[in-house]
Amino acid sequence: MNDTGSLEDKPVSDSQFVLLSGSVLIIAACSLVYELLISSLSTYLLGSSVVHYSLTIGLFLFFMGVGAWMAQSIERNLVVFFIAIEVAIGAIGGVSALLLFAAYAWTEFYYPIMLLTIAAIGILVGMELPLLTRILEARSGLRKGISQVLTFDYLGALIASLLFPFLLLPYLGHLLTASAVGLVNLLVALIVAWSFRDYLRQWKSASLAGLLAAAVLLIASALVVNPASELFESALYEDPVIHTEQSRFQKLVLTNRGDDLRLYLDGNLQFSSIDEYRYHEVLVHLPMAFAKSQRRVLVIGGGDGLAARELLKYPTVESVTVVDLDSAVTNLARGQTQLKQLNNDSLSSPKVTVLNEDAWAWLAQQGDLYNVVIVDLPDPENEDVARLYSVAMYERIARRMAAGGVMITQATSPWFARRAFWSIGKTIEAVFEDVAPATVYVPSFGLWGFFVAANHPLDTATSRVFEGRFLNTATLVSVLTLPADLPKLPVRINHNHSLPIIEYYREGWGVLNNASEPGVGKGS
């Protein structure tokens, strides 16, 4: 037996063969987790999920190809190189989330650093699989070796695709997931090094040193996850962070300074307690004034409980159903002290039913009819949300409305995202007989837009306008009077098969937003 890591003098044993086959599965799972981490983290920080997932996956595959091409230059010491590559992947992948958070918080070079991180991990992963194939080939032949590597590679990818959204991200978050997966890579390298120790005699010191250095790095990164998270959040948000949580769907951050409580979802401001009443009074009391009955109300979104708070001010309201996808948001609204005070603990009222379901699928079912439907969803910045502003969505809402019912939806800023605003209106007009735009100035958001819709005339209120802090009979006229400098624009209807509203939305807000601050607006 030689000491250079060659497999020429002794074939792979049965136990080593099983170990390497299992390593392929684990390596593939870890690699896909790094892809998903970078994609989801970039989406959280910068929005545009389709763009960042497409970029990350495409670049990863390209650099894996580069790595596979580079692997052909390795002719001997296959096991040594495999272990070294595995250690390098663990070290780089394990600190990737920390690196990207820091790049976003303190530099203007997020994309270059993101590209370099993807390139490094992609090239190394691309080198791994050809090396493993050649190592296994010594035992089972080329055809069988390739088949086995690909089989375990695809199976590992499946496992990672299930673990990441349902276990890793919700329970560990980005930073700890990266460190944990990096340690898994190191564990694979350690086990393989032990199993092939006879091949590594002259490389023993270097192997142990590399493993030890990488392990120290990753353990240190895992230990600083909490202080690092606090440091990054404080750099991203102006006010002190009092709660942060990663759900299956989004990152929740609650900040507080004095009387100003703010909720951010994936970095986008949802409300400020200083002026949220302006938004929610229009969102709730405007449709209630035009509805022929106020008995049953449906709120789509609104998991913060603020719309429900306004609805419970009506003695005529018998039931409120809140359909919000993310249980983390509704649990926060029911459990966090300051937020409970702000929403008057509305989600715990016996009149309120909370359903943590996908509104799109829920509306397609047969069910109760509602007198008022309030749509309080994030802005249509990606495909998942944009379909909730489509003709098909409004048709589903219309089928769940009682005779004389009224619907209202928030419709982003008519000042910054004008074509998106008018596209929402034109889409609603394709379903409802009478549609009216409305606007209100909310200092935290700027000028904000809504559309009210019904299948009866909306020219006269059917009940007394609720006297709120902002909205009353006098201000109702101004809310329903569109400023002269916001004329109707020629736009396309938002259909599911085309979703032009995404283009309109990004076109408008893209000029305003930049990568140095959290988003401003309902999902902007």
Give an overview of the whole structure:
The chain is an alpha/beta fold and 524 residues long. The protein has 3 domains: 218 residues, Growth Hormone, Chain: A (Up-down Bundle), CATH 1.20.1250; 34 residues, no CATH class; 236 residues, Rossmann fold (3-Layer(aba) Sandwich). Helices cover 55% and strands 14% of the residues. The strands form 2 sheets. The chain has a 7-stranded mixed beta sheet with strand order 7-6-5-8-9-11-10, with helices on both faces. Strands 1-2-3-4 form a 4-stranded antiparallel beta sheet. It starts with 13 loop residues before the first helix and ends in a 14-residue tail after the last helix.
Keywords:
alpha/beta, 3 domains, Growth Hormone, Chain: A, disordered N terminus, four-stranded antiparallel β-sheet, about 525 residues, Rossmann fold
Q: In terms of topology, how is this protein built?
A:
Layout lengths: L13 H33 L2 H23 L6 H29 L3 H31 L1 H54 L8 H20 L1 H12 L4 E6 L4 E7 L2 E6 L2 E5 L3 H15 L5 E6 L4 H6 L7 E5 L3 H9 L1 H6 L9 E4 L3 H6 L5 E7 L6 H4 L4 H9 L1 E10 L7 H12 L4 E9 L3 E9 L18 H7 L20 H11 L14
Shape category: elongated
CATH class of the largest domain: Alpha Beta
**What separation lies between the terminal Cα atoms?**
63 Å
Largest pleated sheet: 7 strands, mixed
Rounded radius of gyration (Å)? 28 Å
User: And the CATH topology of the largest domain?
Assistant: Rossmann fold
Tally the structural domains. 3
Give the helix proportion (percent range): 40-55%
Class by helix and strand content? alpha/beta
- Tell me, rounded to a whole number, the average pLDDT: 86
DSSP, total strands: 11
Low-confidence stretches: 1-5, 514-520
- What letter string, H or E per element, gives the SSE order? HHHHHHHEEEEHEHEHHEHEHHEHEEHH
